[in-house]
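Researcher: Sequence of Ornithine carbamoyltransferase follows. Predict its structure.
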Amino acid sequence: MAPRHFLTLLDLSTEELEYLIARSITMKQRLKDNGPEYAPLKRRTMAMIFEKSSTRTRVSFETGMAQLGGHALFLSSRDTQLGRGEPIGDTARVLSEMVDLVMIRTFSHAGLDTFAQTSSIPVINALSDDYHPCQLLADIQTWTECHGPVAGKTAVWVGDGNNMCNSWINAARRFDFNLRIACPEGYDPDPALLEAAGDCVTIVRDPMAAAAGADLVTTDVWASMGQESEQASREAAFHGFQVTEAMLDAASSEVIFLHCLPAHRGEEISETLLDDPRAVVWQEAGNRLHAQKALIEFLLLGRIDD
Ligand code: CP
Ligand code: NVA
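Model: Prediction complete. Tokens:
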């Protein structure tokens, strides 16, 4: 049987994604109550390929795998044959012979697709240039923890139409909430994704207008990994798109602010925004651990309803 992969949120049904959010909340509570005693993945191994830097993703996957009783293998492209040109498909075949699961942080989403097509074990997208679906699991969990089911609510994305924005679009489709995207012209998200999303996603150029009455506001860096040379031109293009306390004041009285982190204070957010009680970014970052554990468990063991 072909393995299940998690390359974008659309690889799972709404029901499966809702299961993962609920399972992650359960696993978080049980870890708090009982410690890491649930360890069903004894002697199972996950390879983690990193072609870009990471703090949260590496730590959450590695810790999650250890807590579940398994082992995670950190593979930097700088130190493996991938970095010396071994074809990605060959690497996928080799890892399929040895480990149970692969997680990849890479540049090209097409390369990730190639890897997954060649792999006979599940592959997780831990961020590509186009998507960051693992982060959305933690983000939807955090939103749910704060204010219950997200269906019918309104989220606002401010800033670059990047990999995180594309994943928010997919999340709006799957979890049935409204998404307003405030991005400067020339930095729109993938038009095909926008078209597929239909009425639940709208572009609103003015960030203050987009934030009005919203239940959630989120943003990300203006220059993603791989775009460092565009930093200056992006700073100019995103002038006026900084998320501020005033923007949250225009939103619902229950609004929360999320940021996948790392954040740049004074650029995409005000110097003090992360100190505002409406910012729940540390809870969001911590939820990466629980979301990753639920995802690993689902891909290796299937649905567990206990
Ligand atoms: N949010 C996120 O993916 O963080 P890292 O780049 O530190 O993994
Ligand atoms: N958009 C950012 C997200 C980092 C977690 C990047 O790709 O660098």
